[in-house]
Amino acid sequence: MSITWLPGNALTLLENGTEFFPALQAAIDDATTEIFLESYIFDNDETGRCISAALSRAACRGVKVRLLVDGFGGRAFVAELMDGLIATGVNVLIYRREVGNLSLRRRRLRRLHRKLAVIDGRIAFVGGINIVSDFEAPALEAPRHDYAVRIEGPLLAPIQANVRRVWELVAWASFRQRLRLRNGTPALTEPCGHVEAAFLIRDNIRHRRDIEEAYLLGIAGARREIILANAYFLPGRHFRQALLAAARRGVRVILLVQGLADHPLQHRAMRALYGQLLMAGIRIVEYHRSYLHAKVAVIDERWATVGSSNIDPFSLLLAREANVVVRDAAFAGELRQRLVQAIDEGGREISADTWQRAPRLQRLINWAAYGLVRLMIGIAGYGNHH
Q1: Pick from 258, 341, 307: which is nearest to 14 by CA?
Q2: What span, in angstroms and rounded, lies between the C-alpha atoms of 228 and 12?
Q3: Is 70 a catalytic site residue?
Q4: Which listed residue (115, 145, 267, 386) is catalytic?
Q5: Taking the model in full, what pTM does it have?
Q6: Which domains are assigned to the chain?
């Protein structure tokens, strides 16, 4: 796999919705020609209504606003917010509209999990933050922990080209007629910073493994440290072997994963892997201050990634995802500092000794969950790939 690195970008790391949503809203309010926004979830809460209002204001002043929301993650959006936005002139498309629960059929499991925005061809946002309130439960002491990146510079070209292409594909699937977006705002690609970065996607055609392979290349090249923060960490054999090989050659490997589980089955299945990883010397830290939703990594304080892709079968085998990969010491250093702070403030490390002393029933439940997840992957038709 070859990665197309583009120098000259200006990147701003945004932590949690407290930093992301004000930056997104400011960009929407400053838009003059064109807005693309993609989200897996778009809730009818204070945050969702705030962004909805900004999109409506933009449409009312003549900005071409195109909003793409997943049909499963955005079921509440379809029922409660969509018609109001359309009435104000926002162009809305739904990616694979679903009613009821998902089946295990492969086609229905292929979701739009990306979180992307492009404004006037001059600013982009890439990350893991949905349009939903940070505080999932009032009892939590901190907001949901996640990251996004604000981007200016040459990287706008591939990001904008991709969001336009996906919009055209979904429009064709929705209306069964080919739509070409003409006279769009050109991407502003003049160098405006010093960051070298690449835009990677995962789809079900030509880019099925691009994000996973970028991770594997980064891990293979690691010499000192890997910090990987992932909400739903259930890697396949190749990914696990890459981490184990890094640990064997003396690389310090730290995994920051969910401590508070919003999907118990996946959480239990993930914990089935702890024994092998801990025995290899890999540190595992569970985040308990709030829900961890991050999908980021830092390697040797020079390589970093921020995006929507988890390290699990849903992201790596099924969903449309988007990540930014960065080669820049300053950016990687800042992300590392924030991850270390999250570990210090909200992490609980699992030791190998403690894990070995865990009740046998608990470990059996974990492996049963892992087996069930593997069975579901096989039913969906992906058993040979995981």
Answers
A1: 307
A2: 20
A3: no
A4: 115
A5: 0.93
A6: 6-195 (3.30.870.10), 200-385 (3.30.870.10)
